[in-house]
Amino acid sequence: MDSYKKNDKTYLIENNSSVVLQSEKVGILHLYINMIRKFYKSILALAVAVNISIGYVAAQDSTSTAAAAPAGGGDAAKGEELFKNNCAQCHAATAEVVVGPGLAGIEERRDYAWIKKWINNPMGVIASGDKYANELYNKYNKTQMTAFGAFGDAEVKAILAYVKSAGAPAVAAPTGGPSTTTAPAETGGGKFINVILVALLVIMGLVLVALLGILQLLNKLSGADAGSADASLSFGEKLQAGLKNVAANKTVRSAIVWAFILLATKATFDGMYGIGVHQGYAPKQPIAFSHKLHAGEMKINCAYCHTGVYKGKQSGIPSANICMNCHNAIKRESPEIQKIYTAIETNKPIEWVRVHNLPDLAYFNHAQHTNVGGLECKNCHGEIEKMEVVQQRSTLTMGWCIDCHRKTEVNGKDNGYYTKLMEAHSAVSKGAMKVKDNGGLECAKCHY
Ligand code: HEC
Ligand code: HEC
Ligand code: HEC
Ligand code: HEC
Ligand code: HEC
Ligand code: HEC
Fold it and tell me: Which of 58, 345, 395, 406 has the smallest count of CB within 10 Å of its CB?
């Protein structure tokens, strides 16, 4: 018996040595392939997790990310600041006319020396009899541009660099709003998602290439065993056979399917979250009225113009008469102010474009939030006093309302109406009374 076993073993080794060797190699290769498969699966799991969490984040109100830093380096960044502080009340960096012409493409229209001279002393250039300057001046109803005598080459070049970068289609806000400086929050998130997806696809690609290599190795080894049959095949045929092998491979097939699924889910998520959500909406208004100037620099109280905001459901948009309190004397010659006169003379109200707009099925009351709740405008609207053009900063979705009602405490300060309620609340619960504890999640409070 003993010798038989021994013989058996020897027999095997003697006669099938190459097969054993071969299957050992194949075994190791299979090990590798399995490792790669596992690695691949974990990447897939990661990809799915990332996709889902991105979807979740996208669903959240992203006002907090609204201040995402605008990209741009060195000169252009400095130029943006200079532009915002000195030029933006009259110029857009795009082709759009504000008070003066849009500055996009200015370097093609005029040479650098002219631009610098003009910025330093526009009236001087006009007085010198410069034909272009005079035509422009007349075209803009002889509106005088402020002189920036102190601007040297560094400042002017920085501004031009900014205008160039902001005017380029890739950098301009996708909503087409002239305020490229306040790009909607979504784009930041969107770019981030794309970077992750591309990175994942690249990794998947690399793994595929590695798999291909191993498969080829496997083929070669089995080919050597099978004899010289392979050698007679042309390169093209070999390639074809290789590709067939790859296509038949389970991992490769599932990789392709997963790549499709990932892309499709992203597209679907993007599409669904976008329905009816107008975050970042900043339409062009019929008059270039600037909150940055009136509410920011001049610090006019919001309620001076939005008279209903502490008293009623609607804030209301001011009538032209409110503007006339000041503009019957200020800047009468400006073409933008002339539009206010025209509205009053022809008795046609100014047709401001509505920015925020809840569907009819929802009820929202300003006084409840600003007066009773003690909230500030910027809790919901962002920093309007910094906006040249009003932009919708919050999503205005139901989730947004509910989320805040879950988190925010009822403002009981100086409010006799709430004193008893709050006592009752603290008797049964340790935490502060939130809006949700006061019916803030009841459907009927928000829906007619
Ligand atoms: C008070 C409004 C106002 C401000 C502020 C202002 N501009 Fe102007 N700008 C104008 C007007 C209006 C014109 C058109 C010519 C005219 O009527 O004087 C103009 C024309 C120009 C032109 C020529 C445009 C063209 O298409 O040829 C350039 C360049 C220019 N401005 C640059 C600037 C820069 C840079 C700043 C900021 C440092 C600035 N402006 C600030 C009102 C302004
Ligand atoms: C409390 C006073 C006040 C009220 C009210 C007011 N403005 Fe102004 N507005 C100003 C001042 C001051 C300026 C800056 C003028 C300057 O640049 O020298 C200005 C500038 C403007 C400009 C830029 C004009 C230009 O050519 O530079 C526009 C447009 C404008 N206001 C529109 C309006 C509209 C529309 C309303 C009503 C909704 C309004 N303003 C209400 C004081 C006021
Ligand atoms: C001088 C008058 C004036 C002042 C002061 C003012 N606004 Fe406005 N506001 C307007 C006018 C005019 C519009 C309509 C045109 C526009 O959208 O720019 C408007 C529009 C708005 C809108 C968008 C309305 C819509 O269509 O959805 C919001 C939000 C807003 N203002 C908030 C504020 C806040 C917050 C402040 C104080 C920081 C403020 N406003 C101060 C005149 C004013
Ligand atoms: C709790 C969130 C919240 C706060 C705080 C808030 N708003 Fe609003 N605001 C909204 C919503 C939501 C709308 C859209 C209402 C609609 O379409 O019926 C809106 C609309 C507006 C409008 C458009 C006209 C209108 O009345 O529908 C103006 C103007 C405005 N808000 C100004 C203000 C000002 C000024 C303040 C601060 C004094 C303020 N809001 C505070 C949520 C808020
Ligand atoms: C930034 C936070 C915030 C957001 C966003 C917000 N709310 Fe509120 N809401 C409050 C607070 C705080 C109160 C409690 C006011 C009080 O009674 O003291 C309140 C109260 C209410 C009430 C009265 C509830 C009651 O118990 O009587 C209604 C209705 C309401 N909100 C509707 C809405 C709707 C609709 C939206 C979205 C369009 C919204 N709110 C968005 C903070 C918010
Ligand atoms: C705090 C206020 C608030 C409460 C509480 C609330 N909703 Fe809403 N709901 C809204 C707002 C605002 C919208 C509109 C959102 C939009 O346009 O995206 C909305 C939209 C909806 C829609 C979608 C309609 C459409 O056009 O797609 C349905 C359905 C709905 N609510 C049902 C409910 C039900 C059921 C409840 C109670 C469990 C409820 N809501 C509680 C504020 C509220």
Answer: 345
